[in-house]
């Protein structure tokens, strides 16, 4: 395996990282990360207080240079969740920015501050490819968070496959404003540009004037950020023009609505590419830079990645529906070189997440489009609605609702119904004055098959979301 960060072996004075007023060239990054890596030698795992700062980026880079597994810790975790993570991964120490206060369970660990002014040699020895690079904890929606162990080979392979899909080179300047404790912001958003020998500008938030001033060739964001950005750009044509000079806008972590696709394209002239992946799998599919993106789809599988759609289980076992009633939906199962090796300390959970023939069951539902791209319908647990003998994807109904001008946000769920099994209920944040319930129901019925229309619309001021901006449907009422 080639070195994870070739540009750090013969560093120069090109810009590598910039976070606000803090910036490092490749030469200075190699010195700071090399010195820290020397202090980490021989450790097994280190926690990283993963604030959105340059210190987090340097700390993780140093751990990887040393062949030590980095555990990025969400700085917003509650005391109980944080205690579980620290107790589960048992880190040797915690890396943090100088002077940054640490919450209780992290404060109890030996601490090593990340010194940006230090200088030391980059370790000459490249660790074996199967050595753990990262332990990233899942959101824990169905129990305590589980630590997905990602080997160095998976990180390297996935970033190289994405580079092929997006024509990503050392000439690219990436801008984003993502948190650094998950795959999107850390693996793609920090390790990606460093592996390519390019640059990262973390801009704090995806604000139109700030993004325009960054002069980025690539932009990463989540749908919530792009939704807010689209609103800004509609009244800021100068920023829209500057952002339109980028060559690639990428959205991930959730589906970008057709409405926001169109708004971004009108403002900038750029079509947003989407991609799909999980903590356990890294990125599996991506819309290619050279292809016209397909709204509602997340692209074709990356090189070396296999994806199959398994029959959806009905109440008594595998689907027995007549052909066509489930719109070609299937449970997404995957295998390939970018997958994790298992959940830390959880062989039971690792086994349960795989099929008998070794494929990883993502828990997502999807379908293939005519072009061979994958379209994600949603999560099996929350986005597959079984109503009146049909299997219905909630995402399709949400997108239809968002095409109505009076709808700002929408989340669709199934609630128990004695006649239908489940009835479709839409939770809607209105854009201004709430429309009549019947107006929205008829709007969906005009766009989709009659059985997909909501039976009830509930208006609300806001939808519950997590730190990534994903709607948490488990917190919506189902009565």
Record the SSE blueprint.
Elements: E1 15-19, E2 22-25, H1 26-40, E3 45-49, H2 54-66, E4 69-73, H3 79-89, E5 94-96, H4 104-107, E6 111-113, E7 132-137, E8 147-151, H5 152-166, E9 173-176, H6 183-196, E10 199-202, H7 208-214, E11 218-221, H8 223-233, H9 237-243, E12 248-251, H10 258-268, E13 273-278, E14 282-286, E15 300-301, E16 306-310, E17 313-314, E18 317-318, E19 330-335, E20 342-343, H11 347-352, E21 360-368, E22 374-379, H12 380-383, E23 384-387, E24 390-393, H13 394-402, E25 407-417, E26 421-430, H14 437-447, E27 456-459
Parallel strand pairs: 1-10, 3-4, 3-5, 5-6, 9-10, 9-11, 11-12, 12-13, 26-27
Antiparallel strand pairs: 1-2, 7-8, 8-20, 13-14, 14-15, 16-19, 17-18, 19-21, 21-22, 23-24, 25-26
Protein name: Malonyl-CoA/methylmalonyl-CoA synthetase
Family: Belongs to the ATP-dependent AMP-binding enzyme family.
Domain AMP-binding enzyme C-terminal: 396-470
Describe the protein.
By secondary structure, the chain is of the alpha/beta class. The chain has a domain of 94 residues: GMP Synthetase, Chain A, domain 3 (2-Layer Sandwich). The strands form seven sheets. A nine-stranded mixed β-sheet has the order 2-1-10-9-11-12-13-14-15. The chain has a four-stranded parallel β-sheet with strand order 4-3-5-6, with helices on both faces.
